[in-house]
């Protein structure tokens, strides 16, 4: 799960990491009064959507007067922000974060992520703060310093010094940097984050390190022990259909093709998308109905797939194991009675009792329901049907 | 020989009396797995599926001599269950549960390694040695005895691969589902070593997914250390960047973890990489002829 920048900063603040003073608003009049309350002569107006690259897309702007605060907030609130991460459809900005400006001495990048090869969290730091870090990683990877931290010893001061000296920080700044990095590590571990990025982390004229930005991703499997963070979930930021699918134990991801897929198992579901491509078509979605597919999940699966108006055919690809194919076949028949399916459905059932299942489906003689002999045959028939 | 488990392996089940644990333990018993008991705290002394229930893993090991544990406890108790197995000197824990926090598994795995316990999973279908021992949730009837080893991140693709291998007139020695989480126990490298040394295995099938770099590590290892023919399929060739595809670990981050990179690395290592998941069986047959 991802959360908004202002929520990340709220967490930072609770742990004692310095962040600029700020206020979240949904109306430009409130933005002006927030700026007055915050004080100062310079404010930053920041669009709150779950995406990187907001600044480049025009969603983050500096205001040097209250008039500018009003003008900029009015402009950003309600705008459709298109960044390199939102896709071409963009995202509507519903909230802006108004922050008091900070006098900057220098900028850094600081982040933490799980290194899957090392199986340890890695702290990443760079002097190239304030620019797109993916770009730095590509063009000048040597400018990103990475340091694995073994959780069995946790963050030690030497970790912080190691980074600070490699960043060539001024000697006077090192103790404060080490302390900042220590707290960042604590947040990462205690809140079960899978990613934290601060870009930029600035050394302010006041002498302190301040997180000017904050991005945080959380391990979904650990949310049960973080009610406070779970409460930060913004359903507007999540795909409605994906969220609905999850409620029924289905794992759905929308894609751009026209062949709908319903599969049991995540690996087979990905492989089904792949074989559709191999057969000359494009999958409209990833859909894993789980190991225990039954009539209800299959019916729900059809409903969810058919919400996508691009669908021209549906490929049901189930490998029956413990759940026997004959039961799944009956489930499909039941589902076709309850859900109005308007496109050809190609069914491939293999595994336990597959032969009986094929008999059941053929006997039912339902128009638009095509039984496939195997995986390859199913994919080909689904792609052909989508072309007609 | 086969690898990891055989008909003599003594198995206990952690989470024995729960819904999932009961259902699958019964299927394993039907298959012929030598399940000697199970563990559910506060139910020690009872009998379940005709086998004794113990309060703790150490007691179960003491009384039954079990060396392998199949773990079915709910996600939030998984790390505790793994570490309890380590402490009781279990040699191999097969962790079926899906949805355990990454931090918990990181800690439990580190503790297991430190104390020499092998772990398979979490979030995996388990391990099966055809006609001998099934520890997990896979349909036993799909796995006909033969001389092909399977290592897979995905459950249903393991069944798919086995089914295709059988249709080609071959069979499976041992199949291991290693799981699709970001941190897992035994991986390709360790299992490839075991299959290479196993005189009942002639060829190895690897099924990978997008995300992480385990398949790339495997490719490097195969090039120097594996002489038996290897066939591979990587799922997620058409998956979009930055989207999690069902499994917690199946995500392409930035430019890392794409199917293309993995397929190229494996091909360079001399592995037969199939583009279509329907060609796994045929490719194995070809490599063996």
Shape of chain A: elongated
Could you name the CATH homologous superfamily of the largest domain in chain A?
Answer: ATP-grasp fold, B domain
The chain pair forming the largest interface, with residue counts per chain, is: A-B, 55 and 62 residues
Mean pLDDT of chain B: 94
Shape of chain B: globular
What share of the residues of chain A lie within helices?
Answer: 25-40%
Which band does the percent of strand residues of chain A land in? Answer: 15-25%
Structural class of chain A: alpha+beta
Poorly predicted parts of chain B: none
For the structure shown, list the relevant keywords.
heterodimer, A: alpha+beta, D-amino Acid Aminotransferase, Chain A, domain 1, Dna Ligase, domain 1, Rossmann fold, four-stranded antiparallel beta sheet, 13 helices, 18 strands, elongated, B: alpha/beta, 2 domains, seven-stranded mixed beta sheet, 9 helices
Describe the structure.
The complex is a heterodimer of chains A (388) and B (289). Chain A is of the alpha+beta class. Helices cover 37% and strands 25% of the residues of chain A. In chain A, strands 7, 8, 9, 10, 11 and 12 form a six-stranded antiparallel beta sheet that branches. Chain A is elongated, with a radius of gyration of 26 Å. Chain B has two domains: 11-120, NAD(P)-binding Rossmann-like Domain (Rossmann fold); 138-288, Rossmann fold, CATH 3.40.50.261. Helices cover 34% and strands 22% of the residues of chain B. In chain B, helix 7 (214-225) links the parallel strand 12 (203-209) and strand 13. The two termini of chain B are 23 Å apart. The relative contact order of chain B is 0.12. Chains A and B meet through helix 4, helix 9 and helix 13 of A and helix 4 and helix 5 of B.
